[in-house]
Amino acid sequence: MILPIYAYGMAVLRRKADPITPPYEGLQELVKNMFETMYDSNGIGLAAPQIGLSIRLFIVDGCKIDEDNTTKNLKQVFINAKMIQEFDAAWEYEEGCLSIPFVRADVKRSSKITLQYVDENFIEKTETFGGIAARIIQHEYDHIEGILFIDRISPLKRTMLKKKLQTISKGLVQAAYKMKFPKK
User: Quick check: bond before 23 cis, omega within 30?
Assistant: First the structure.
């Protein structure tokens, strides 16, 4: 089932998400719906807060954008993720977000990270990711921490985007996918 993407201005996007524990009722169906929603929206990652759930769950699928050979097999589910380490030189790259349609900006992120998490079967893992894979994961990880990519850009650039962000939060945009906007 395709779910609506929560737009910039929705409170759930600014809340630090809660951990989930096994058994989490309906988890497999939720993950399936999240992948379907992400693909319908032409996304490469989706976090539970973006569909209105304040839980520490996000998915990624970077297989189609294997720009630097780090996303070739990157189709994963991350539950209760915890950033262990960010290392190597930070680099800028243009990002966008399904919750903030039509807005893109250069964001500086670490080129390598180590993350501890459990998968959809609650099997604990610790993995290191680099390149574009690390960037995608950091973007989605930020969502479960209540952080949006626009929080990581310069104050000047944020000021320049203010009107666009207000337009989104007022529901005055037409994305090519189903969205839910803050109540007026």
Answer: yes
